[in-house]
Write a structure and sequence with these properties.
Elements: H1 2-26, H2 39-66, H3 69-76, H4 79-90, H5 99-120
Helix pairs in contact: 2-3, 3-5
């Protein structure tokens, strides 16, 4: 698993990194990419990338090994009801302003929960 994620990281670093560096320095493209990048901003971007992307991919791959690919992938859809709950708890649920959108969101969240429970407890 670590070899797989490491190879994906190296391919992304070399592929995307080469496009950005060659495009910026060689062809003069992407003029605003490096305009306001301070060392502090770069460090925060790297930390966010590590925690947001690397950690989530590692935990997903670990869940695939511990359960099954179907359960782990369907489990990712649980973000939708959790995000709706957090928005409602914080009072920022714009979907709750209208009865039609609230019903759509709540029924969608219910379907996601039912699908997850259906896969887990088949």
């Amino acid at each position: 698993m670590l070899l797989f994620l490491g190879v994906i990281g190296i391919v992304n670093l070399l592929g995307v990194g080469a496009v950005i560096v060659l495009g910026h320095f060689g062809l003069g493209m992407f003029p605003d990419v490096f305009a306001n990048v301070t060392p502090r901003v770069f460090a925060w971007a790297c930390a966010k990338g590590l925690f947001d992307n690397v950690l989530s991919d590692y935990l997903w791959a670990r869940a695939v090994l511990l359960t099954s690919p179907t359960i782990a992938s369907v489990g990712l859809s649980m973000q939708i009801p959790l995000a709706a709950f957090v928005e409602a708890a914080m009072g920022r649920a714009r979907w709750a302003d209208s009865g039609m959108t609230a019903m759509g969101m709540l029924s969608g969240c219910g379907l996601v929960l039912a699908g997850f429970l259906g896969v887990v407890y088949k």
